[in-house]
Amino acid sequence: MAIQETLTVRTSRRRELLDLTDRVRDVVRKSGVAAGTCHVFVTGATAAIIVNENDDPQLLDDFMDAFDRLVPEGRWRHDRIDDNGAAHIKAAALGPGEILPIAAGDLALGRWQNIFLCEFDGPRGSRDVIVTIHGG
Ligand code: ZN
Hints:
Largest sheet: 5 strands, antiparallel
Bound molecules: zinc ion
Order of helices and strands: EEHEEHHHEEEE
CATH superfamily: YjbQ-like
CATH topology: Jelly Rolls
Shape: elongated
């Protein structure tokens, strides 16, 4: 049996990283699952989920700068359709979801690991993030 909850996330900028760790952790703790897995998935083709550090805010800017250098804006065929080719490519490269371990009734993240929604084509009034928990 799986437990599932959809988190609604509002984004406020064209591109940003939003830390979802506390909200996902709440779902895991409420589930009562002691050991298992937690799947976090963002719907939509221009956002991604990553796991990384949220201690130095400069690192979040570094991520966005690096993604922009890897996939520059404004040179994609799809831009002629809705001007967000780079957002699609970044989202596809990073992927829409992550699977995280649950141990002792909690997310088993490392000290420097947080869960982020990467918005590449905001702002969006709502992004749906589906959290699915398997385990016992
Ligand atoms: Zn598009």
